[in-house]
């Protein structure tokens, strides 16, 4: 008498082995197992903060039951939040779909950053602050022309076309910020030759605190209170009320 196959083998045949009908029922247990696999896959592929493509999850996780990918990703997102404190965010600016993992832990001072990463984060903070202030707090839906950002950086002796003693290859770092979705570069309508503007990317919007950004600007400009920036402060307060923050 033949013995029944272990569930892991049945899962392997269903999602990795011979093709199965898309109409075939997929049980709750299999969805959970696939979600756990998706969590492992996303954590392993997030080490450089590059967005994870929906198509890669289908190719490497759900495979022959791709119609259930949405259900698997939804459950994986819940697991990431409950177990690791990580928020799974879909980047709606891109088609096809891609996802970012956002660390929701508010207190991460214990995490040691390499000197290179510290320098990159300093440069990112400078750029995001310029964007925040120049858009009068409309950091989520407005941008600043690329040439103006480069001009601001040059005032700080940071030339985007040259190697900087502290920040390294600035042009390469800016490309990294774009890839990681800290920055978006958007073509400005009706410009010929084309012009572009920098905007906060979806990762920056999710990870970076606008109040802290305004505090940083206040310190840089030597002001005493963040309230002295009327438009920006109002935007921060409205944002925090919307998010239910104190």
TrEMBL record:
InterPro entries: MAGE, MAGE_WH1, MAGE_WH2, MHD_dom
Ranges where the record places region Disordered: 1-27
Organism of this sequence: Frankliniella occidentalis
Biased composition (Polar residues): 1-26
CC per GO annotation: nucleus
UniProt-listed SMART domains: MAGE (SM01373)
Protein name as catalogued: Melanoma-associated antigen D2
Pfam family, one: MAGE
Residue ranges occupied by any MAGE domain in the UniProt entry: 31-235
């Amino acid at each position: 008498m033949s013995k029944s196959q272990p569930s892991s083998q049945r899962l392997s045949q269903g999602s990795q082995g011979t093709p199965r009908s898309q109409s075939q029922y997929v049980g709750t247990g299999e969805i959970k197992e696939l979600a756990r696999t998706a969590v492992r896959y996303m954590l392993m592929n997030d080490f450089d903060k590059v967005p994870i493509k929906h198509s890669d999850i289908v190719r490497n996780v759900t495979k022959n039951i791709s119609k259930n990918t949405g259900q698997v990703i939804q459950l994986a997102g819940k697991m990431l939040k409950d177990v690791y404190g990580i928020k799974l965010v879909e980047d709606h600016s891109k088609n096809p779909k891609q996802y970012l993992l956002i660390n929701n832990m508010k207190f991460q001072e214990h995490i040691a950053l390499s000197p290179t990463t510290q320098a990159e984060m300093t440069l990112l903070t400078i750029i995001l602050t310029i964007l925040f202030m120049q858009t009068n707090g409309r950091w989520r839906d407005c941008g600043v022309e690329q040439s103006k950002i480069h001009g601001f950086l040059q005032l700080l002796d940071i030339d985007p076309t040259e190697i900087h003693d502290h920040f390294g290859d600035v042009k390469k770092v800016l490309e990294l910020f774009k890839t990681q979705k800290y920055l978006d570069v958007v073509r400005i309508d009706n410009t010929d030759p084309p012009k572009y503007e920098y905007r906060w990317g979806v990762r920056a919007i999710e990870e970076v605190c606008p109040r802290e950004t305004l505090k940083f600007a206040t310190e840089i400009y030597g002001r005493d209170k963040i309230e002295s920036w009327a438009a920006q402060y109002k935007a921060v307060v409205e944002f925090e009320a919307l998010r239910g923050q104190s």
